[in-house]
């Protein structure tokens, strides 16, 4: 079984990831369950500039939250929600709290993207969200890499300050050799990594140093289209093919199962598979 803990829908800047692409790819490549966040909550563009106010208003956190819930409600056996937060421009209001309370069965965590919000996980602006996460026992999933606010150190700081919450370092510092993120991974029991654009060699090193309970499978599907699991936009073989095929022979059966599904079931409390 494969659970993908890092999947997207939504249209933002040059990205357009659809519900149809997600469902197609899950069926074709044997993904049992996907945790989905909606990229329309991005607050800043790739250069750190604020996205225009009219777009931001149209894509308010609650509206995007509702869109994501709608997708999951129609496919609750296959799709779970990670709520993409907008900590730079919004805070949880009563509507947000109501949506959370009344749809708890679909919600598996909060998603941060410090690169596209230019707000670090250790910022005070996250405290109201962390309080809610603790109340509902929801993990925090955060992009790492690309700017200071999105560094693994800033997520480490948040995890150290909030031992009651689990935190996942998505990408383990995207665009780097992952060494700093790997070092941090072993310093806290509530800090985890994922495999999104992370080479198998890094995951093997994590297993060697810390065991297989610290890494979760994630992909960014369908960022390169409906066949993201197969190839990138240029047609080059996706690194996820190595996770699906060769990786299983590189580790023990238990290690493979932990990384590809069991860790996700435990950390996100995915009861349907427990």
Can you tell me the overall shape? globular
Alpha plus pi helix count: 11
Tell me the number of strands: 9
Q: Cα-atom Rg, whole angstroms? A: 17 Å
Mean pLDDT: 96
Largest sheet: 9 strands, mixed
| Element pattern in H and E | EEHEHHEHEHHEHEHEHEHH
Runs in which pLDDT lies below 50 for 5 or more consecutive residues are none
- Helix content bin: 25-40%
Strand order of the largest sheet: 2-1-3-4-5-6-7-8-9
Explain what you see.
- The structure is a single chain.
- With 274 residues, the protein is an alpha/beta fold.
- Helices cover 37% and strands 16% of the residues.
- The longest helix has 15 residues, at 253-267.
- The chain contains 11 helices and 9 strands.
Task: Describe the structure using short key phrases.
about 270 residues, alpha/beta, 11 helices, 9 strands, about 15% strand, globular
Short description:
This protein is α/β, with parallel strands linked by helices.
Topology:
Elements: E1 3-12, E2 15-17, H1 19-29, E3 33-38, H2 53-58, H3 61-74, E4 79-84, H4 94-102, E5 107-112, H5 114-117, H6 127-136, E6 140-143, H7 152-161, E7 167-170, H8 179-185, E8 191-194, H9 200-210, E9 215-216, H10 240-244, H11 253-267
Parallel strand pairs: 1-3, 3-4, 4-5, 5-6, 6-7, 7-8, 8-9
Antiparallel strand pairs: 1-2
């Amino acid at each position: 079984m494969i659970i993908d803990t890092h999947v997207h829908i939504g249209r933002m800047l040059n990205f357009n990831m659809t519900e149809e692409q997600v469902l197609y790819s899950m069926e074709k490549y044997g993904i049992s369950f996907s945790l989905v966040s909606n990229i329309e909550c991005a607050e800043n563009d790739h250069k750190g500039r604020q996205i225009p106010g009219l777009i931001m208003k149209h894509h308010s956190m609650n509206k995007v939250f509702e869109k994501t819930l709608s997708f999951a409600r129609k496919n609750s056996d296959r799709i779970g929600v990670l709520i993409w937060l907008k900590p730079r421009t919004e805070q949880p209001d009563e509507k947000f709290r109501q949506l959370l309370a009344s749809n708890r069965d679909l919600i598996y965590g909060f998603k941060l993207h410090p690169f596209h919000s230019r707000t670090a996980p250790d910022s005070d602006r996250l405290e109201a969200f962390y309080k809610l996460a603790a109340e509902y026992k929801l993990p925090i999933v955060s992009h790492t890499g690309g700017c200071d606010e999105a560094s693994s150190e800033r997520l480490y700081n948040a995890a150290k300050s909030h031992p009651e919450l689990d935190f996942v370092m998505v990408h383990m510092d995207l665009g780097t050799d992952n060494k700093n993120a790997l070092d941090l991974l072993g310093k806290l029991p509530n800090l985890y990594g994922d495999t999104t654009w992370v080479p198998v060699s890094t995951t093997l090193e994590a297993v060697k140093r810390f065991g297989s309970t610290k890494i979760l499978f994630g992909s960014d599907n369908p960022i390169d289209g409906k066949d993201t699991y197969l190839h990138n936009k240029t047609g080059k073989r996706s690194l996820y093919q190595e996770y699906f095929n060769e990786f299983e022979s590189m580790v023990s059966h238990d290690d493979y199962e932990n990384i590809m599904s069991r860790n996700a079931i435990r950390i996100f409390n995915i009861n349907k598979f427990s």
